[in-house]
């Protein structure tokens, strides 16, 4: 399927033949071996050890949604990487956070970005947010064979729905099952602790600033109880990646903004190590 640039310089016929608006369908028809789920794995016994990304959180607020992730990747009981990036823009109005096998997850995100770009170029319009969530579900399902060998990818997808005028969050399981979450969501090894923190602090009229503070607080609580989740690392200047998605598109917080939020939380935790308290009534 490669272009023969040494002779005519023309693209192969595969690129010029009308077909599906799905890049995955195109790849599956002409070079199926390039799809992650089509690769043959050598026989192994037990789960394969590979770097894993951990906790991803998201919360909605009037006008948009915030998606954030910690920076630690683990391999067994070892820290494989301290500054991995787990939150990526999918297109202009959506972003995806990765948890699970890091290498496959990053590859899946890149393929997902291509899928959305290909659709927009072929159809001349963007997929609906619901359609994007469904496409990601199909990609996760195609990875089921690897997931059964311990190479699972479980992302969190969030975006601004331009048709409904609000932010939405979608979570997935390893089989590609998709659920829309209301208000907030978390995935990854520290998700149970992050979700508990957000459950007590979330309310429906958060400002954008409060929403960004909430997700970083949740990641801090996850790191407090889950060794695979990394908290803010002031010494190395490593802070959570935070993406805000509104009608203006996806905006990733600059390092200075993330560090300011993390440092303010650290200062308050010196007085309240367990974080802010929710009202009893």
From TrEMBL:
The active site is at 54 (nucleophile). The formation of the proteasomal ATPase ARC-20S proteasome complex, likely via the docking of the C-termini of ARC into the intersubunit pockets in the alpha-rings, may trigger opening of the gate for substrate entry. Interconversion between the open-gate and close-gate conformations leads to a dynamic regulation of the 20S proteasome proteolysis activity. It catalyses: Cleavage of peptide bonds with very broad specificity. Its main location: cytoplasm. It is an enzyme of class 3 (hydrolase). Residues 1-53 form a propeptide. It is found in: Cytoplasm. Its EC number is 3.4.25.1. Keywords: Autocatalytic cleavage, Cytoplasm, Hydrolase, Protease, Proteasome, Threonine protease, Zymogen. Pathway: Protein degradation; proteasomal Pup-dependent pathway. One of its GO terms (cellular component) is proteasome complex. Gene3D superfamilies: Glutamine Phosphoribosylpyrophosphate, subunit 1, domain 1. InterPro entries: Ntn_hydrolases_N, Pept_T1A_subB, Proteasome_sua/b, Proteasome_suB-type, PSB_actinobac. CDD domains: proteasome_protease_HslV. Belongs to the peptidase T1B family. Component of the proteasome core, a large protease complex with broad specificity involved in protein degradation. The 20S proteasome core is composed of 14 alpha and 14 beta subunits that assemble into four stacked heptameric rings, resulting in a barrel-shaped structure. The two inner rings, each composed of seven catalytic beta subunits, are sandwiched by two outer rings, each composed of seven alpha subunits. The catalytic chamber with the active sites is on the inside of the barrel. Has a gated structure, the ends of the cylinder being occluded by the N-termini of the alpha-subunits. Is capped by the proteasome-associated ATPase, ARC. This is Proteasome subunit beta. It comes from Streptomyces albipurpureus.
């Amino acid at each position: 399927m490669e272009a023969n640039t040494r002779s005519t310089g023309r693209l192969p016929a595969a690129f010029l033949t009308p077909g599906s608006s799905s890049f995955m369908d195109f790849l599956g028809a002409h070079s199926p071996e390039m799809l992650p789920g089509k690769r043959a794995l050598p026989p192994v016994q037990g789960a394969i050890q590979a770097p894993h990304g951990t906790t991803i959180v998201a919360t909605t607020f009037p006008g948009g949604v915030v998606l954030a992730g910690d920076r630690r990747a683990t391999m067994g009981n070892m820290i494989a990487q301290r500054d991995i990036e787990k939150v990526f823009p999918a297109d202009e109005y959506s972003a995806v956070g990765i948890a699970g096998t890091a290498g496959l997850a990053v590859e899946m995100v890149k393929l997902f970005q291509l899928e959305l770009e290909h659709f927009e170029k072929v159809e001349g319009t963007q997929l609906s947010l619901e359609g994007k969530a469904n496409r990601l579900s199909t990609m996760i399902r195609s990875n089921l064979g690897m997931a059964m060998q311990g190479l699972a990818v479980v992302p969190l997808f969030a975006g601004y729905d331009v048709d409904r005028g609000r932010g939405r969050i979608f979570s997935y399981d390893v089989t590609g099952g998709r659920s829309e979450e209301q208000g907030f969501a978390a995935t990854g090894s520290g998700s149970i602790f992050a979700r508990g923190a957000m459950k007590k602090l979330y309310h429906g009229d958060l400002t954008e600033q409060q929403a960004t503070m909430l997700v970083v607080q949740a990641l801090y609580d996850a790191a407090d109880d889950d060794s695979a989740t990394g908290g803010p690392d002031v010494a190395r200047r490593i802070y959570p990646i935070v993406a805000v998605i509104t009608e203006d598109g996806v905006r990733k917080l600059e390092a200075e903004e993330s560090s300011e939020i993390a440092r303010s939380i650290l200062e308050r935790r010196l007085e309240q190590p367990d974080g802010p308290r929710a009202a009893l009534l």
